[in-house]
Amino acid sequence: MSHTASLSFEVFPPKKEEEFKNIFDFLREAAKLHPDFISCTYGAGGSRAGKTIEIASFIQKELGIDAIAHLTCVGFTKAELEKNCEALKAAGVNHVLALRGDRPQHMTDEQFNNREFFYATDLVRHLKAHTSLQISGACYPEKHFEAPNLEEDLTHLKEKVDAGVTSLVTQMFFDNACFYRFIELVRAKGIPVPIYAGIMPITTAKQLGTTVSLSGSSVPKELADLIATYGENKEDMRKAGIDYAVRQILDLREHGVDGIHIYSMNKLKTTTEICGLIS
Ligand code: FAD
Q1: Cβ(141) to ligand 1 under 6 A?
Q2: Total-model pTM
Q3: DSSP letter at 18?
């Protein structure tokens, strides 16, 4: 079956300076897979903001691929945000994923309670009023962990989109049925923008204990069983994880999803193999 789903990747700025060069090698190779866009995450405290902008600029200017720079607001003043927006402009990056972010450890209760931007929607409104940036946002098929229920989360998602978000990227999920239910509810709520399905290939057992548990995404029995069976064997686990992600993607495409967003974790071999198997 033919499909029109877009393909995109997410990368992150490596923490160690000596690993920083590798990200540009990854991006040069990933460009050959012809993604529609590549997004780059932003450290929660914002201490490495410059790195996100540097990477996004490379994607946009050197590779000629649409770049989305993630931008959080929870720890920022308006003046600091303005500085970041100036830097984005100077770097030729004109698209951001506007996020609230999680509370940085260094923030005191007083700072947190008096923060200038409470929610991503506040950031979106500010960017709309003061910049010409294109703005995307995040959404959560299994609801955001702070939201009392999905209905309330969706009400706030609608506010965020109405404030000026033109596309949404989902939190990772491993059960497509959750995603399909979510899309039905989102559309019923009158949210019309494209929604890119976030797919995280699970290639090591360790990932479940770290990334996945932090995301709050549920782990279907099939995936849990697969890790129980192959988790001890590095190469078998990688293959089984890739196979799971590929099956998820093919099913999503058959269901006419707007786009597939692969959380690449800067892993070239895994990303390339997945793209080869879904092309
Ligand atoms: P919001 O949209 O502000 O929502 C947060 C919570 O507030 C939700 O429960 C929502 O229902 C609630 N809410 C919203 N408005 C209101 C209101 N008016 N009244 C009451 N409640 C309200 N984090 C990083 O630090 N760096 C990154 O690069 C990064 N990239 C991400 C990319 C994606 C695709 C996703 C899904 C998440 C990413 N995150 C990143 C994590 C994100 O910062 C956290 O999940 C954060 O807790 C929420 O951010 P948000 O922008 O979704 O928040």
Answers
A1: no
A2: 0.97
A3: G
Cite the active site residues: 10
Q: Indicate which atom in ligand 1 lies nearest the CA of residue 145.
A: 9
Is the distance from the beta carbon of residue 76 to the nearest atom of ligand 1 less than 6 Å? Answer: no
The SS3 of residue 134 is strand
Query: Which is it for the CA torsion 153, 156, 162, 163, positive or negative?
Result: negative
pLDDT at 149 over 70: yes
Question: For the segment 25-70, what is each residue's pLDDT rounded down to a tens digit?
Answer: 999 999 999 999 999 999 866 567 789 999 999 999 999 999 999 9
For the four alpha carbons of 26, 193, 122 and 133, in that order, the dihedral sign comes to positive
Q: Check pocket membership of 7 for ligand 1, CB cut-off 6 A.
A: no
Mean pLDDT estimate for the chain: 95
Q: List the end-to-end C-alpha distance of the chain, in Å, as a whole number.
A: 12
**Facing residues of 38 across strands?**
9, 67
pLDDT for 164 equals: 98
Residue type, 73: C
- 132 neighbors 171 (Cβ within 8 angstroms): no
